[in-house]
Design a protein that fits this description.
The complex is a heterodimer of chains A (about 190) and B (about 290). Helix content of chain A is about 60%, strand content about 0%. Chain A has about 190 residues and is mainly alpha-helical. Chain A has two domains: about 80 residues, RNA polymerase sigma factor, region 2, helix turn helix motif (Rna Polymerase Sigma Factor, Chain: A, Orthogonal Bundle); about 70 residues, Winged helix-like DNA-binding domain superfamily/Winged helix DNA-binding domain (Arc Repressor Mutant, subunit A). Chain B is elongated. Classes of the chains: A mainly alpha (about 190), B alpha+beta (about 290).
């Protein structure tokens, strides 16, 4: 309160006593990754609404959070569960989508050097392949590559044993290759 | 670079990971920020917490399980949550949480919301007072466009409810903004004109779940919120100091209803639909009228 930003632990401690403004400040730090997490898990759901609900539930459960534990994956796990609960089990699903090139928002980082490599049609092919995967495969790929979560964070967020993240990711990538291979149509097949 | 010419399925794990990372930066993710002056996810979450009167607790987890499962309350919760948010935007907040007595500070005259009036919203440059209004009843109140009652009902998408009391009769005029219907009665013997609007009765009806932030109200200092029930449905009685009235249209624009002050207001939700009733009636009479609507 003396002009420096409070760290997570201070905010959590205050929020645990019912200081709701401290909680708002705390979750504001994670709302972007939370909305992205919800969207990866339930691409056709209302991610923003799921996150709001998850943040309310996390607040109610906050007294049981151990202050010394990492907050972000704890919060993201609640978000992920909320998003899963809202996932439609049947019916047509649109899946993840790409934004148009001109939609790059001002705050976004400049395109990385690799972006020159990935042509638009390649991105579309990758996306289509990801949308063709099972939920679990899309989740682990999304957690590691789209959300940039560490293995430990991905494990906690997705509710997986920590030791299995690597192998699950590896299997998901294999199935992704299979999807890509099936749709490539190029000279090299399977 | 040579690798990029290979089919995607044949590149190395590392290269595939790089491609996925890059593709991830192109995924159309929804934004957590409140765009155009709208509250962000953190602010909306806090408003829900306040509206539901939730506190961190070690044992009792029951109450928040109900949040997602009971649509009956949900519509109202979202409406009330949205209602609290604008005060947060403008800053100057003091919460007396228990029992949801909420006291907000003064309204900054140039709040971000007040300045975010979109074009074509119909609120335009109408005067803040209804007294000198030319045009049909309520035309200075920024209530939308005039439609017949039948057309208004069609726009709302559900059956409107009206006072059966012949002394009140049908509304004198129906306004519609977005899918929110605003029914206006001129003042009369049983319905004295409100100080703020100069009309007798204003009943707004809309589907609360269409957009959680469709309905927003800016509460001035001294406004009191009292929990009530209307035919068993949860509601709030907003009384005391006059408060200002805003809402967010379906396109997400903040629409300022000519910055008018409104008087005592009853808001309640049946789950599907949310209603607000503004008049000079006291709380009991307002609830009685609300419960009589058919």
């Amino acid at each position: 309160m003396e002009g420096r930003p409070l760290d997570d632990i201070e905010l959590i401690t205050r929020a645990q006593t019912g200081e709701v403004m401290a909680y708002e400040e705390l979750v504001r730090r994670y709302q972007d990754v939370a909305v992205r997490t919800a969207h990866v898990i339930s691409p056709d759901g209302d991610a923003e609404d799921a996150v709001q609900e998850a943040f309310v539930k996390a607040y109610a459960a906050l007294a049981r959070f151990r202050v010394e534990a990492p907050f972000r994956p704890w919060l993201l796990r609640i978000v992920a569960n909320e998003a899963r609960n809202r996932r439609r089990s049947a019916g047509r699903r649109a899946g993840l989508a790409l934004r148009a090139a001109e939609d790059r928002r001002p705050g976004d980082a400049a395109p990385s050097p690799e972006s020159a490599v990935l042509a638009g049609e390649t991105r579309q092919a990758l996306l289509a392949a990801i949308n063709g995967l099972r939920d679990e495969d899309r989740e682990i790929i999304g957690a590691r590559y789209f959300l940039d979560l560490s293995e430990a964070e991905a494990a906690e967020t997705l509710g997986l044993p920590r030791g299995t993240v690597k192998s699950r990711l590896s299997r998901a990538l294999s199935r992704l290759r299979a999807q890509l291979s099936a749709s490539d149509g190029g000279p090299i097949r399977g | 670079m040579a690798e990029s010419r290979q089919p995607l399925h044949a590149i190395s794990d590392e290269a595939l990971g790089g491609a996925l990372r890059e593709m991830g930066s192109w995924v159309a993710f929804p934004s957590a920020d409140g765009e155009g002056g709208r509250p962000d996810v953190a602010a909306l979450s806090r408003a829900r917490i306040v509206a539901l009167d939730i506190r961190p607790s070690r044992g009792a987890t029951r109450r928040w399980f109900g949040l997602g499962l009971r649509p009956m309350r949900r519509g109202l919760v979202l409406a009330v949550a949205a209602l609290l948010v604008l005060a947060a935007i403008a800053g100057a907040i003091g919460f007396g949480l228990p029992g949801l007595r909420i006291i907000f500070g003064d309204i900054p005259s140039s709040s971000p919301v007040a300045s975010a009036t979109p074009s074509g919203s119909g609120s335009g440059s109408a005067p803040p007072s209804a007294t000198a209004s030319p045009g049909p009843l309520g035309s200075s109140l920024g209530l939308g466009v005039v439609l017949s009652l039948a057309d208004a009902e069609a726009r709302a998408g559900f059956d409107l409810i009206l006072p059966p009391d012949p002394a009140i009769g049908p509304p004198d005029i129906a306004w519609v903004t977005g899918r929110r219907v605003n029914l206006v009665w001129a003042s009369g013997p049983g319905l004295p004109a409100t100080e703020a609007t100069g009309i007798g009765l204003l009943i707004s009806e809309f589907q609360g779940h269409v957009d959680p932030s469709l309905y927003q109200k800016f509460i001035d200092s001294g406004t009191k919120m009292t929990r009530v029930t209307v035919n068993g449905s949860p509601g709030y009685w907003l009384s005391g100091a006059p408060h200002f009235f805003f809402y967010i249209d379906p396109e997400g624009n903040s629409v300022e209803d000519t910055h008018r002050q409104v008087g005592d207001t009853l808001i309640w939700s049946t789950g599907e639909e949310t209603y607000r009733l503004e008049s000079t009636l006291d709380m009991d009479a307002a609830i009685q009228l609300a419960e009589s609507l058919r």
